[in-house]
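Repro:
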Amino acid sequence: MAARFTTGELAALKIIADEVRARGVCELHVDAIAARAGVSASTVRNARRTAERQGYLSVEERRRQGQRNDTNRLTITDPSWQAWIKKGQRSEGGGFKTLKPTDKKILSILKPCAHEKANKGYRDQRTASSGPPHPRF
């Protein structure tokens, strides 16, 4: 499957697959998928159209008369892609520790490090004038 898409299109399809894994269907706007994947909206549209033509996705257009249309509902129809998504689900309590951010109060209390003081002194010495500049020949 991956050989039929560009790297950008694969990134967009990965965002769609993540959304399908989390919610069962993908109802994200094209611009939201593009922003998450780091590609343009036209790349997302191309990936969606190609995947639909290849039979990987089904697209349900949700038109509303006299109003803005709802976002399209994307469903993964390819059995091998569905199995890949199911296999890739992470169980709770996986192999990563939860990160605890540094308390900002501690950062405001800390004094500058010794190397910062040394660099500041070095900069002050360089900018101080020590006489007329040397002529260049």
